[in-house]
Amino acid sequence: MSVVLFLVATIVGYVLYSLIQSMKRPKNFPPGPDFIPWMGNTIQLRKEARASGGQHLVFEKWSKKYNSDILGIKLGSEYVVVALSFPLVHEVHISEVFDGRPDNFFLRLRTMGTRKGITCTDGQLWQEHRSFAMRQMRHVGYGRTEMEQYIEKEADSLLTYIDELHGEPTWPGSFLAPSVLNVLWTLTAGKGIGRSDKRLQKLLQLLNRRSKVFDICGGVLSQMPWLRYFAPNWTGYNLICQMNQEMHAFFLEAINEHRASITKENAESDLIYAYIREMNEHSDEAENSTFSETQLTMTILDFFIAGSQTTSNTTDLALMMLALHRDVQKRVYDEITDNLEKHKIPVNLCNREYFPYTSAFIMEVQRYFHITPVTGPRRALRNTTLGGYNVPKDTTVLIGLRVVHMDKAHWGDPEVFRPERFLDADGKVFRDEYFMPFGQGRRRCLGDALARACLFSFLTKIVHRFRIELCEEALPSVVLQPGITLTPKPYKVRFVNRQ
C-alpha cells in the first residue's frame, strides 16, 4: 500500500510541478498576459484574433494594455517575444543572434517533415544554400535585365488576357498570380507554365487556402500538433499534407525532366539544372553533401511562396486603390504618357527614376496595407536581451511590421493613403527608414527583386492601356482578410480600353 501511495504522490507531485513550471515566466521576460497552465496564451490569442480580425491587432492591443512595445507570451510550450516598435524591429532584423528559425512541428510539416530549404532553416545549411541559390538565380537573370525581359513578356500576355475580358466586371486577384509564377518558374525551370494548366490552378488554390487557414505562428498545429489526430481538417493538417503532395509531384516532374536532359551546355541555364549539376559533382560524398533532391524541392517551394502570393496580392491592392482614387490613377497615367509620348522614355525598371509618382504610389500601397503585418518567425540563437528584457535561447521572435508602417509619431497621418509622403521637395522618391515591406538584413525576403519588378511593370502597362473603374455590385474593401498574409476580399472592377 505504501508503494501505491508513493507512486500516487510522485505522480501528483510531478503534475503540480509541471503545472507551476508551465505558468512561470522567465526572469525579466517582457510583459504580457499570464500563462494558462500547459497552454500558455494559445487559446486566448486565437479567440481574440478571431474577434479582432487578426493576430497583429491583438498584439497591438496587448502592447497598449501592458504599456510596452515588446511583448512576452507563451504559445503551447514555446516562449514568444513580439517586437512592436521601429528600434526593436530594426534590431531583430540586423542582429545575428536573431537569425535562427524555430524548429517545431508546423515548420517541419511545411517542408515535408524535414528541415530543408532556405526560408525555414538556419546556420550553415541556410548560409550555404541561400548563397548558392541566389548566385544561381542571378546567373540566370534574377534581379537583372533578363528577369525584366521575362516580366515584360508576361506583362504583355497579361494585357492580352485583360483585353479579352472586353470590359466585363472581374476581380484582378483571379488572374494575377499565374503571371507572377510564370516569371518565377521561367527562372527556376527555364520555361513558363500555361495559364490554363490545371496543375497550376490547383497549386494556386492550395496556396490561397494555406494563407487563410494558418497564421504567422503556425496556428494550433504548431502549439498543439497532437490535435491533428482528432481534427485533421480543422487544424489544417490535411491541407498541408495535400499541398506537400501536389507541390512535390509538380516539382519532381520538372526535376526528372531536367535530369534526363542535362548537358555541359545547359548545366547553369536555370536553378534546377544548377542544383542537379551540384548534386552530380558531389555524388561520391552524398552522405556529407547538403545538396539533395529534397533540398532542391524545398528551395523551389521557398521561392514559390516568397515570390508569388505577396506580389500578386499587392498588385491586386494597387489596382483596387487606383479604382478607389481616380485622382491618383490620373496622376500615374499622366506620368506614364508624359514620359512615353513627350520624352520617348520607355516604361521599364531601368528608367524608374523618371516615374517618381508611380514608384511612390507602389510604396504607399505596400506601407498602407502591410500584407505581412507580423513577420518572422525568428529564433534566438543564444540567451540575449531585447529592449532591456531577457530573451532566453530558442525563444521565438516575431516582428511587428504593421506597427512600424502605421507609427503616427513618424508618419503623421498613417491612416491616410497619400503617395506624396514618399516624394521629397524636388518630387524625387526617397527611401524612408521606417519603410521595410521586405524586411532588412540577412533574412530579407528572397522575392524582393521579383516583387518590385513585377509591381512596376504590371501596373504601368495596365494603367497605360486601361482605365480601371469600380463596379457598384461588388465594391472593394480596405479591410483585409487575416491569415499568414493579409489578402483582399474579392471585389470587381472594369478594365476599359483607353485606345
Automatic annotation (TrEMBL):
Gene that this polypeptide is encoded by: LOC125778705
UniProt superkingdom: Eukaryota
Swiss-Prot/TrEMBL keywords: Heme, Iron, Metal-binding, Monooxygenase, Oxidoreductase
InterPro entries in UniProt: Cyt_P450, Cyt_P450_CS, Cyt_P450_E_grp-I, Cyt_P450_sf, Cytochrome_P450_fam2
Identification of the protein by name: Probable cytochrome P450 305a1 isoform X1
Cofactor: heme
UniProt keyword Metal-binding present: yes
Family: Belongs to the cytochrome P450 family.
Classification via SUPFAM superfamilies: Cytochrome P450 (SSF48264)
Upper classification of the organism: Eukaryota, Metazoa, Ecdysozoa, Arthropoda, Hexapoda
PROSITE patterns (alphabetical): CYTOCHROME_P450 (PS00086)
